Amino acid sequence: MFEKFHPAKLDPILSLSKLFQADQRNKKIDLGIGVYKNDIGVTPIMSSVKKAEARLLSEQSSKAYVSLAGAELFRDQMRNLVLGDSVAPERVATLQTPGGTGAIRQIFEAMKILNPGCTIWISDPSWPSHMGMATHMGFKTQAYPYFDNETKLVDVEAMMASFRDIKQGDLLLLHGCCHNPTGANIDFDTWKKITDLVLEKGALPFIDIAYQGFGDGLEEDAAPLRHMASRLPEMFIAASCSKNFGLYRDRVGIAMMISKDSVTADLVQGNLATLNRVNYSFAPDHGAAVVGMILADDELRREWVAELEEMRMAMLAVRSKLADSLRQQCNSDQFDFVANHRGMFSRLGLGPDQVLALREEHGMYIVGDSRINIAGLAGDRHLPFSVAVAKVANVS
Ligand code: LMR
Description:
Helix content is 45%, strand content 13%. By secondary structure, it is of the alpha/beta class. Strand 6 (204-209), helix 8 (218-231) and strand 7 form a beta-alpha-beta unit. It is globular and about 60 Å long. The relative contact order is 0.17. The chain binds (2S)-2-hydroxybutanedioic acid.
């Protein structure tokens, strides 16, 4: 029976890592998968994380199961980190999940129960797994216009026009900050208009926030979703600790559902825990215990905030150096937008042949849609990259 499977489709991001590893060239540069890298190209373990892990190792006295919904300390701290005081805590049900992806899955699972016939609205483009997971689970999907390839900004007009067709009970998936893959973000005024619109339509916003602290700052990045939370009776949030705590492989995430009142939130809380039980039982503990400890401890938290800010500033510095050197190499301002984008990614607007030439002729690995991981260009790697881009774009 097993031969019934179709050959697996290659993941556009993960398959690139394999090609990169197989490349023998010394000067190759990996700008594919979204992991932070320092000047020497290493993805470091944050010092606050190391300290919390050491403390955990010495203090932890049992590996018995924690609660089905996950550790309370982690869930409370994360609710505060993401939502601040925008909504009464008793209206928020929370679920610890294996990574932010696990949170997305559990929110889709909840929608399977609440409104299986809904359409899930996903930005075009988006992180490929959004569409992949939604269609795998049998949902109807609708891609909405997002990125203007000319201006490299959000095409607000086209996006808002398409939202006119949203129906009551549909799920509108929005990136909380640091849009992946484009790096172009919705401005605050437009967030307010979207909030009005979902209220009017009776649709459900679902905010995926995987890069809080990588854009304009921890509080600033959460501001749009906090605005929504303060105004809407119901909404979904998936948050990831992969990037801002550097806990990629430990799989730390959280799903949140904001309800109209605390009685409904209790009902939701029980159902979320059941979703963990029927899918994989308990979420992994270690990384979430580390996050909970860091956020609850003044000293560790201060250190983590400073480390996160350092990463954010380093990526901003790369952005402006890259924009400068691309301007010089290409003798054009066509790539100036990378300085204004935010987060880990920008989409350069190169065609498939240019992406291939970057890889094959220059050992520069970028995703097929021309998304680059900005952090991969630290340590002056933006210089050879700009030279290569100018060559493949035929402008040098
Ligand atoms: C990315 O977009 O590169 C990251 O979110 C990693 C992943 O799982 O795709």
